[in-house]
Amino acid sequence: MNTLLNLSLNKQPLLKNSQLIIIAFATAFFPRIINTIGLPATINFIHFALVPLCCVIAILTTKIKLKKQIFFCKSLLTCLFLFLILITISALLNQAGIINIILSFLLLTEPFILLLAIICLPISTTSLENFRNWIIYFGIINIVLALCQHFLITTGLLPVTFMQPEDNVQGVFYLSGSGHVVSASVSMSLALFNFSSYNNQSLLIKISIFVAACMQLLFADAKQVIVVWLAAWLMLILIKSKDLKTALQYLIAAIIVIWSLWWCIDNLPIFSAFKAWIRPEIYGLNGVATQLKTAPFRIIPTYYQSSWNWLFGLGPGHTIGRLGGWMLQDYASLLQPLGATVHPASLAVWQTYIGHWLDSTFFSPLWGWAGIWGDFGLLGLAAYLGIIILIWQYICNDDFSRFTILTMMIFGLILTQMEEPGYMLSMTTFIGLKWHENQIHRHPYLS
């Protein structure tokens, strides 16, 4: 009997926490293309259950000992709980459905829940290498699929949807509205993460992955990614201004890249699409692009019924976030029976965009930060920013992680990519793995 008891106590779990997290990540990374080939739309919601479950398991079984690591995990849990309280108050104030609360909370915080689970892992050099390899393999699949889609589209073997041919180059995010931008941004970030990692890959392989990601970006005509990366790069230069040597290096590199891009736009046909945005007359305070982009700030307050709406918004899923702007309509047959609620503010903003000649998502009035403000008000916006600041302060200790979180925030000024699970979970996974890399690199005894 004692022998059997000892065996049961020493028995290893069927799956390690890191393996569970990889599986959970995969359920958010691959469902679009799996849904496209015939599986039901419910597959897009599986990750909403698996990611929190993995986080709970990771927290309950964690063996982390670093005080800074423990403090961050407790602080992030507290911030997430406070954000949930704010969402609930907003829902009660605006009579939003319970499913609205759940989905709004998960759409915005699921990436940070996954990051929390990753930080809770007591990773060794071997387990980190395995985890990183799986994520890189997933990213390579995305790149290869995108390049194959480009080839099949140009040869006429893959039918083009209502979007432009380039917009159909979406990798694992095939088919979705702005999947080409999401896929290209994931690929570029993966290539940069792989390039900056302390792994055993040869320089040739790292360069090859980066070049392949750049090819995907060009084939997909994902101009937004380049604009966002340049903006994040310039912001990083300003942040690094105290480190004059590094800032100068980044600045010189940025000037070279911007000059090269400008030359390519003028001389290479593959870059000609960028000229569509170089129209100064549409910008400025009264420019058409500015007026379209700022439409939410003029429309949403007209639906306020009390001063409380300034603090708590119009309720989860009631304005222009991913839930209110798309999901409640696209998945109405699934969500309405669960009590999902909608609000006319969403349609009011949509009407300013439908049929507009500036139909690029770059000018869309439905964008992440405005959606957070519209749904949850100033307090909700402050709470979400608090989570970002916490991660920046305690986890983003290297230039790659800071650059990545800056790109996430800038993408939130364009569309609702901050609520795209496949993209956001990829970014926080890169950040979490990079944090573990840095810990092992600085403290070899941890491995």
Task: Give your account of this protein's structure.
- This protein is mostly helical.
- It has one domain.
- 67% of the residues lie in helices and 0% in strands.
- The protein contains 20 helices and no strands.
- It has helices spanning 2-10, 17-29, 31-36, 47-61, 67-94, 98-119, 125-154, 179-196, 203-219, 223-239, 244-267, 288-293, 295-299, 308-312, 322-330, 332-335, 344-353, 368-394, 399-411, 421-442.
- Residues 1-12 have low confidence and may be disordered.
SSE diagram, text form:
Blueprint: H1 2-10, H2 17-29, H3 31-36, H4 47-61, H5 67-94, H6 98-119, H7 125-154, H8 179-196, H9 203-219, H10 223-239, H11 244-267, H12 288-293, H13 295-299, H14 308-312, H15 322-330, H16 332-335, H17 344-353, H18 368-394, H19 399-411, H20 421-442
Helix pairs in contact: 2-4, 2-7, 4-6, 5-6, 5-18, 6-20, 7-8, 7-9, 7-20, 8-9, 8-20, 10-11, 10-19, 18-19, 19-20
